[in-house]
């Protein structure tokens, strides 16, 4: 007699509910209703003949059987995802990358033509998000992330270092309160990058002003924007002075749409990292992309 295989949809519902310990949150992730998740889990329990969850009022907990089953189910899903990735890579060389929005707009897209010219056999599929992707569950091959490069179970290579400095429209260099010294910022609107990075090392106006030795400017005032490229656009339009990452304003400075009113620059511990699963370290498509990035960064550094 053939071994009975549990149905796939109930397995997906179980994995999400067990990982999140919530039918409601699992339903949001799977784009179904909580009752549908509950029903699918019940189908799986009936199929297996064992309870997987203890339901106590509104709380949800795994039974011993559920705790033992969960890692095996997750391992099976991961193996299935990897097998699919290998099959697709063999049939069609596509590299699916996920990057922060401003990295895509200000660094990757302006350079993509060069990658496409030198690697015509690889199609890039680019998506953006601010959070770390789950490589086991999402159809992503490689990600770019801003942080310290500490990602458990993943290989991380620093690709861009970061420094920040104020930038503004050239017209703010003149007028009733021209920008000559950092202290002159008290007469101007500060534009804030409201990116969701909560680590204390992430740069903000308070850190830059302290670094510049300025004590009489309110670092909290002024409008905030997210993603970061909106802060840069606001500065180009003359709304105020932005604290910008060097790599994001290279073209605007070269074109004269932005200027640096002061020379003071603040180096940042954080950086941008190429991140991918350890088991993909020998993937030739990933290797091609990372080598191309290294070459691009080296060319930028040589021109600086």
From TrEMBL:
SUPFAM superfamilies: Periplasmic binding protein-like II, Winged helix' DNA-binding domain
Record's keyword annotation contains RNA-binding: no
BP GO annotations: DNA-templated transcription
Cross-referenced Pfam families: HTH_1 (PF00126), LysR_substrate (PF03466)
Keywords annotated in UniProt: DNA-binding, Transcription, Transcription regulation
Gene Ontology molecular functions: DNA-binding transcription factor activity; sequence-specific DNA binding
Signal peptide extent: none
Residue ranges annotated for the HTH lysR-type domain, each copy included: 6-63
Taxonomy, superkingdom: Bacteria
Family recorded in the similarity comment: Belongs to the LysR transcriptional regulatory family.
Stated name of the protein: LysR family transcriptional regulator
Record organism: Bordetella genomosp. 13
């Amino acid at each position: 007699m053939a071994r009975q295989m549990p149905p796939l949809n109930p397995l997906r519902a179980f994995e999400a509910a067990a990982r999140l310990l919530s039918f409601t949150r699992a339903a949001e992730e799977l784009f179904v209703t909580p009752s549908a998740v509950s029903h699918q889990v019940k189908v799986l329990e009936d199929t297996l003949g064992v309870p997987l969850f203890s339901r106590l009022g509104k709380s949800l907990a795994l039974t011993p059987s559920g705790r033992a089953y969960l890692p095996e189910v997750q391992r099976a899903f991961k193996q299935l995802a990897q097998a699919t990735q290998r099959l697709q890579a063999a049939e069609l060389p596509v590299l699916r990358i996920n990057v922060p929005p401003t990295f895509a707009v200000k660094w990757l897209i302006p350079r993509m033509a060069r990658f496409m010219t030198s690697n015509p056999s690889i199609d890039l599929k680019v998506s953006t998000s601010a959070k770390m992707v789950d490589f086991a569950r999402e159809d992503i091959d490689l990600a770019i992330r801003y942080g310290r490069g500490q990602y458990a179970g993943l290989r991380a290579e620093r690709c861009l270092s970061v420094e920040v400095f104020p930038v503004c429209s050239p017209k703010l260099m003149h007028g009733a309160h021209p920008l000559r010294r950092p202290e002159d910022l008290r007469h101007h609107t500060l534009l804030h990058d409201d990116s969701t990075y909560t680590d204390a090392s992430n740069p903000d106006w308070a850190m830059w002003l302290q670094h510049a030795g300025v004590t009489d400017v309110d670092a909290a005032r002024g409008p905030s924007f997210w993603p970061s490229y909106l802060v840069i656009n606001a500065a180009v339009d003359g709304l105020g002075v932005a604290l910008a990452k060097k790599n994001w304003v290279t073209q605007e400075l070269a074109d004269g749409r932005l200027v640096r009113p002061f020379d003071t620059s603040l180096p940042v511990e954080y950086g941008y990292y190429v991140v991918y699963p350890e088991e993909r370290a020998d993937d030739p498509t990933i290797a091609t992309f990372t080598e191309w990035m290294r070459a691009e960064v080296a060319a930028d550094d040589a021109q600086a």
